[in-house]
Amino acid sequence: MSINGEVCRQDVAAEDEATPLLSSQEAPSRVRGASFTSSVFNLMNAIMGSGILGLAYAMANTGIVGFCILLVLVSTMAAYSIHLLLKLCDQTGITSYEDLGLRALHRPGKVIVAISILIQNMGAMASYLFILKSELPASITSFLSSDTPRDVWYLDGRVLLVLIAVCVVLPLSMLTKIGLLGYTSSLAFFFMLYFTAVVVIKKWSIPCPLPLNTSLDLGVDQFAQNSSDPECSPKLFVFSSKSAYAIPTMAFSFLCHTAILPIYCELDRPSKSRMQKVSNVGISLSFLVYLVSALFGYLTFYSHVNSELLQGYHYLPRDMVVLTVRLAILLSVLLTVPLIHFPARKAAILLLCGSDAFSWLIHVTATIVILGVVLTMAVLVPDIKNVFGVVGSTTSSLLLFVFPGIFYFRISNEPLRSPDTFGAAILVVLGVLMGAASFSVIVITWVQSS
Questions:
Q1: b/e for 298-333, b at 16 or more Cβ within 10 A?
Q2: Distance, CA of 20 to CA of 89 (rounded, Å)
Q3: What pLDDT, on a 0 to 100 scale, did the predictor assign at position 182?
Q4: Three-state SS annotation for 154-215
Q5: Which long-range contacts (CB under 8 A, 24 or more apart) does 168-172 make?
Q6: pLDDT mean over 109-127
């Protein structure tokens, strides 16, 4: 999940909303913007997040070929929806997702977009905190002797999560300006690349099924229970109720649309075609990283892969490579949560107060309430796939597929038979169908399991 861009640092013509963002009468003193390479890097930072940890589970429940087909479909739709947003940006000069909603659907449109961004960011924060809850005890265990009791408080993920949230996340989230935290997104990106490399390397070190005696010491009894299962071979296609989590997880993983327009604003020599190339390169490289990590994660554990891939590596509790990647992910998660909290708080204040005028009372109250709700979600939700499934099938599908298509219908002056208008219609229909179908199957599965 991704970090939403908040500020367009380049001055643009804002007096006439219909004035194109990239006017040919641009002031000659325009400050040089971000290079093509740095813009691609910024976009990949916005794309890649906790979703990478759930894609191997998605492959296990769709099969290798099925997963590849769905990943190509979702990434192509994401790139096309960005194409529509960029065209609207050129036509209107609007530089934020919320303002596109205002232009297309008036005040209700802006409110709906703000609510979707708020829920999406809260879901992203919950997924990051869930990773802290599941990985912190394993990291601490790596530094303890083998005869240390496993029922002590500092090995309880929920207790650790509450302490970390109160002592670290809350103070950082209280900051009114988080410019310094922005550098952590770059670190998080490199940590994801390192994680992918470790997944590839460790595929050759972990047996399938895992030995039975790992269950008592390492907390991976789900593997021991299936240790007699001979199905440690790849499947090309898999269909089950768990397959419904695949598309929402992919949508959650590719969502970067609220950051597209700010990145467009900062691009040096900006043009739609140049920004579209940035988008295509960023999504293609993210696609490659996602595919490699999911494939080798799946080929390591096969049908026993966990919904949060790092948990499978508890089999190697004292492996230094696994320990370093776990600590790297934990550090990036810890410093990224306050960064995601910032736009979530801004959207909440805008919705409730109708104004972004600063007030310490509102600022502190919104920060505590949002973090409290997210912390409760992370503590109570038993499986990270539930976060990916619900958020991915609702707000991610809306922001990724549905809203760009609807906004294009409402704002663009192109005839109904034009290729992009037809493509926008397909985008809306597919987004609604895939999101509704996935969410329905997930809810039905919950009801049956309860």
A1: bbbbbbbbbbbbbbbbbbbbebeebbebbebbbebb
A2: 7
A3: 60
A4: HHCHHHHHHHHHHHHHHHHHCCCCCCHHHHHHHHHHHHHHHHHHHHHHHCCCCCCCCCCCHH
A5: 168/334, 169/129, 169/334, 169/337, 169/338, 169/341, 169/371, 170/367, 170/368, 170/371, 172/335, 172/337, 172/338
A6: 91
Lookup result for tokens 């809350």? 170
In order of 122, 134, 267, 379, 437, the CA distances from 157 in angstroms are 20, 6, 42, 9, 33
Residues 426 and 418: their CA atoms lie apart, in Å, by: 13
Q: Let me know: does 77 contact 247? Beta carbons within 8 Å.
A: no
Give mean pLDDT, residues 258-286. 87
pLDDT band at 73 (very low <50, low <70, confident <90, very high): very high
Percentage of residues in the chain with pLDDT exceeding 90?
A: 33
pLDDT of residue 344: 87
Which structure tokens are listed for 334?
A: 């810890």
pLDDT(195) > 80: yes
Query: Of 396, 410, 405, nearest to 423 (Cα)?
Result: 405
Place of tokens 């939403």: 4
- The CA distance from 46 to 146, in Å, is 40
Backbone angles phi, psi at 412, to 5 degrees: -65, 145
Long-range pairs for 274-281 at CB < 8 Å and ≥24 separation? 274/36, 275/39, 275/86, 276/82, 276/83, 276/86, 277/36, 278/36, 278/39, 278/40, 278/43, 279/43, 279/79, 279/82, 279/83, 279/86, 280/79, 281/40
Q: What is the DSSP letter of 401?
A: I
The contacts of residue 118 (CB under 8 Å, 6+ apart) are 344, 347, 348, 351
Dist CA 81 CA 98 (whole Å): 16
Average pLDDT of the residues in 395-415: 91
- The residue among 9 and 140 whose pLDDT is bigger is 140
Evaluate whether 50 touches 129 at the Cβ level (below 8 Å): no
Q: Which residue has the tokens 């708080």?
A: 345
Query: What pLDDT sits at residue 94?
Result: 85
Q: For residue 304, what are the CA distances in angstroms to 34, 56, 135, 381?
A: 44, 10, 18, 20
From its phi and psi, is residue 202 left (phi > 0), alpha (psi between -120 and 50) or beta?
alpha
Distance separating alpha carbons of residues 223 and 316, to the nearest angstrom: 14
